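User: Hello! My lab partner asked me to get a predicted holo structure for this protein. The small molecule is 2-acetamido-2-deoxy-beta-D-glucopyranose, SMILES included with the sequence. Please write out the structure tokens.
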Amino acid sequence: MGRFGVTALGFFALVVASFTTRAAKLPSSFKRCHKSDPHFDDCLVVNIEDAIRKLKNGAPELALDSFEPLLISELVIGEGSGPVNVQQNFKNVRLHGLTGSKVLAEKASLDQNMLFAQSITPMLRLEADYNMKGRVLLLPIYGDGPCNVTLVNTKINHTLIGEPFERKGKTFLKWVNYTVTLRPEIVQFNFANLFNGDNRLGDEINRVLNENWDAVFGDVRAGYEKSFGIIFQDLANRVFTRVPTKDIFLD
Ligand SMILES: *[C@@H]1O[C@H](CO)[C@@H](O)[C@H](O)[C@H]1NC(C)=O
Ligand SMILES: *[C@@H]1O[C@H](CO)[C@@H](O)[C@H](O)[C@H]1NC(C)=O
Ligand SMILES: *[C@@H]1O[C@H](CO)[C@@H](O)[C@H](O)[C@H]1NC(C)=O
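Assistant: Hello! Below are the structure tokens for the protein in complex with 2-acetamido-2-deoxy-beta-D-glucopyranose.
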């Protein structure tokens, strides 16, 4: 199951799926860190980055498909409260670039079931079929067709809160709260077929969006953060709810 939808229903279906699956093992190529290591956090920085890179081709042991691109059936970014008065509906999303992420810092508080990580993704590109109808910067905007949104040098903070649970005598961790904050250096939008294919108006609107990317993205950033939080939470839980905690973090 490599595809998932970021709608309330899709998320629910996923959570159920990850709980009905059987226990699994981390692929042997994944390196592990010892909790007793005085440099445990530095060890995690290296090994998490390494694991993300290895997941580029998927991990059948964990029923994880390739992360490159990551396929998401549906993603909805709600209206902002400022210049973006339009709901962006994306379907057939291909998210490229996640496996190029670098982990910058990591802080684990395992006794409190918490993890904090900072990462940077040089090039994160969302390609999808979109449809939207509303207003941006007071200008009417509508259309449906292919699009891409590119986030350059995006710093991401990940705050994970987990709850341990037992299954067949083994302890696992489920991440119940995965909060993401995103700070891209620049965002580029490209929506094809705006205004039923009126290229002159469409080019103009794309130009306005890109010239004002900061205000436009800033207004809907919370929507992107929420969606990425759900995506990352699901990916992390596919590993953590299936591999016993003691086999991920060694004593
Ligand atoms: C991440 O957290 C650090 C430390 O709290 C903060 O300085 C930084 O601005 C945050 N970055 C993002 C992308 O939210
Ligand atoms: C997750 O944590 C954030 C930050 O602490 C909080 O604002 C949010 O309400 C929490 N969400 C859930 C579902 O517990
Ligand atoms: C981005 O979208 C535009 C408009 O659909 C298209 O012309 C361009 O080829 C796309 N770029 C990539 C890299 O997909």
